[in-house]
Amino acid sequence: MKPISYAIAGLGLLLMGCQAQDQSGADNQGQAGQAAQVRGGAAISGAGATFPFPIYSRWAATYRDETGNSMNYQSIGSGGGIRQIQEKTVTFGATDMPLQPEELNEHGLLQFPTVIGGDVVVVNVPGIGSGELTLDGQTLASIFLGDITNWNDAVIASLNPEADLPDLAIVVVHRSDGSGTTFIFTDYLSKVSPQWGERVGAGTAVDWPVGLGAKGNEGVAGNVGRTIGAIGYVEYAYASEAGLTYTNMINLDGNAVSPSTDSFVAAAAGASWDASRGFGTLLNNQPGADSWPMAGATFILVYRQPSDPAATTAALKFFQWAYAQGDEMASQLHFVPLPIELTQEIEENWSRVEGWEG
Known about the structure:
D-Maltodextrin-Binding Protein, domain 2, 37% helix, 15 helices
């Protein structure tokens, strides 16, 4: 397994001043609006989801090399990103939990997706490699509820009759910060497990029944990687780059599938993207023989009437460049680029942002 620090560094983390923080971000909110200067004097700053951090980092590094323009993105979790854009301390916020139209209208925000990815379940079980263990949603919920506590439990064994499961305690690892990755995970569990829906529910932050908390995808990946018997959930790029062991999942159609860009594409095949609702579609537990059950898009939030139109325009130009030039980079990090018809609709919708001229 690659050391986590090496894996994350290898993703091209060349954003100017980028730093992971606690969800509260209180000590840095005063600095959040400070960023590297771009041509024309506009400063771009963003904060939020750790889910897309690898691709935003790669895009930003390449964009700087090609244009000379830079931005600051703070990977603090979706909850922090929503809060900071609402408090107007950043140019854009980032979240994996789309806001509802009522919330967007209340705060004067515009929302749009950037890429599609997926949560994966990662484990540290001796003798078990990636794709050698299969779980279903109900079993996963029972593990995170604390009802299944050992890796050789009869329920897990029945799903994996060929696996040599050890008599080993399960150590649950979950996010401790407000997280869109957590929203995707808990929303999925709420859909497949009535017990989870009743006892815990879905959200960027929930009252976890059991387990160890860790900050960010990086923190969960690190804890699972060094804890024998651990299970956690991270965005696929973190699992892949860190060399973590991931499980297969049984999807809505009853098929065991592996996480991949193909299975994320399959999950998004029937998606309906409605601009009037901020493009806020959910992609988990979708039908389809090859659909990955914990797929999701990640979203950007900007003000329709920004206090600094030049900075918001500069941010939108960055994402416009990413839509046009960033697909291959996204695919390399196991994200799914948006179809061109959707990105064209998104860019047309930017006309609602004061100061944007395309």
